[in-house]
Amino acid sequence: MSVESVQNRNGSVSLQVREDGLEAYMDFIPALGSGMDLSKDYIKSFLASQGINEGINWDIIDKVLLEITEHKKILKNVLIAVGKAPHKEIPAYFKIEKRFFVDPMDTSKVKGSVDYRDVHSFRVVKKGEVLAVLIKRKSGENGMDVFGNVVNYEKKSVVPLIPGENTYFKAGYVKSKINGRYINNHEKFWVEEVLDIQNGVDYRTGHIVFPGDVHINGVIQDGFKVISGGNIQTSGTLDATEVLCKKNLQVHGGIIGRQKAIVRVGGDLYCDYIENCHIEVKGDIYIKRNVMNSELYCQGSIHMSNDSVLLSSLIKAKNNVEAHDIGHPGSPRSTLYLGMDFVIERRMKHVQEQLEKNQVILDKTQDTDETISNLQNDQNALIEEMNELSAQLLNPESILTVSGSIETGTVIYMEGAEYQFEKPASHIKVCLEENKILQKELT
Q: Structure pTM?
């Protein structure tokens, strides 16, 4: 090629089209010397020869032609045509709320130290809580490439998660019917009323706090709380630190208290044995074997089996107590308060403290007559409540039944009367008659 031909070069273009045909790019090479400049008519003819007829951006092309003509600058990879992209058809589906994709055991965003007993391995939802939102079907729309060819739309692949048990659909949302555990198995999602723990309670589960029933297969380790708004059932020993059960507690093993352990049950309690524990039960207590070094408070009756032993413990029961043996020779004595409602007793203590506190204020106050009158009204209301509680505190019909033996030193209280066994006795019942505690043989 001669030097003269290089100095006198016509303007030229080249074309590149994206593989899907939706975008076209051009390189623009300006004319040199006496060569012919690129023109809009030339570009039209060139694009037509290449079959490009859709989505051409003539504003961009005009600007490029002006620039390369004035500045003789090569411009490459200029987007000159854009087709119309197809829009996928999206079928209707339920979109799970984002929070359910967060691992409940993830503590990476927690500031400061973490007590891993407070980290749960399950997710609890409340009644009426939103679980998912319905994404409505969106129709597909065909597109067109830069050659004018139709580009067919595709159908978006969506995993069809189905709402399951204890959910309901309303106004575009899936909500929980109950308080319970959220479950998602990648095919459906639902809420369970019962929390099943398969390998006991420890650092793998954290504290258990659940609004419904809790079934625990394994041992509840020391230091872990179990709080249930329903029933609790365990297959192993309960190393109690804090157990709060709104309904029944059934332990297929023993309850062993640790440090200041407390167990509160709103229904009945069933267990094999109890050691070193403070237990409060609003219903009845059923024990297969022994009670040792414990405090049992019961608004119902206490039933111990025919081979059971009560040792070194404090009992308060509103109704009856049935035991086989109470005490062993040389063991610290047990004390039993029969016919006493511990919940009423506790409330009376609180009312009495408030009465005394108010009285101190009344004795010292120099406030207005209105302030004194308000305090006196409070006192009168508390006194009235105290009288009502006193009428509910005691049950004179309560009976202690001992099918085996009861050891010397055991103390019984009933309606303020006290009875201490000065010698062992066997096969007896203890009851209250004419404000006296009597010991009678079993018939």
A: 0.73
